[in-house]
């Protein structure tokens, strides 16, 4: 789906895009190549099973950015809950040592940030910012909200 495309359901039409950010528990730098590969794999499965489109996915060592879209009946909080629970379970299953690194607890922190990205707003800036996460920062500036 493109950012301009209006999605249609039985009784509604929507064009909603969420920029979601959440950190690893204790802000630990655990998002290495191996974990990133797992998360990208799982994100594809989430799209298929839960009708949540992952439009862009970017990760730094200790946090993740999602640009996603879903039917209006799926709240941003529900997107976060689904994504966090499924990815954490799979990361711990494939790499049990990570669970010990986090003292046997959760992979993701409890909180998150969410904002909508409008069709007339700064879509390309947000998408570019998310896609550059984890890459050299020479021309990447912190995204300003206001």
Describe the structure.
A 4-stranded antiparallel β-sheet has the order 4-5-3-6. A two-stranded antiparallel ribbon has the order 1-2. The model has no long low-confidence stretch (mean pLDDT 87). It has 146 residues and is α+β, with helices and mostly antiparallel strands. Strand 1 (7-8) and strand 2 (13-14) form a beta hairpin. Helices cover 36% and strands 21% of the residues. The two termini are 28 Å apart. The chain is globular and about 45 Å long. It has one domain: 2-Layer Sandwich (Alpha-Beta Plaits), CATH 3.30.70.1290. The protein has helices at 33-50, 76-94, 96-101, 123-131, and strands at 7-8, 13-14, 18-23, 52-59, 63-70, 113-116.
């Amino acid at each position: 789906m493109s950012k301009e495309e209006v999605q249609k359901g039985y009784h509604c039409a929507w064009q909603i895009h969420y920029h979601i950010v959440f950190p690893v528990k204790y802000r630990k730098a655990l998002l290495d190549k191996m974990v990133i590969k797992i998360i990208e794999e799982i994100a594809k499965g989430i799209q298929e099973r839960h009708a949540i489109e992952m439009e862009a996915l970017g990760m730094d060592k200790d946090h993740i950015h999602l640009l996603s879209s879903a039917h209006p009946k799926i709240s941003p909080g529900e997107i976060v809950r689904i994504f966090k629970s499924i990815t954490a379970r799979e990361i711990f299953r494939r790499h049990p040592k990570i669970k010990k690194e986090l003292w046997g607890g959760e992979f993701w922190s409890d909180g998150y940030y969410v904002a909508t990205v409008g069709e007339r707003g700064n879509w390309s800036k947000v998408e570019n910012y998310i896609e550059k996460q984890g890459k050299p920062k020479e021309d990447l500036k912190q995204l300003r909200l206001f």
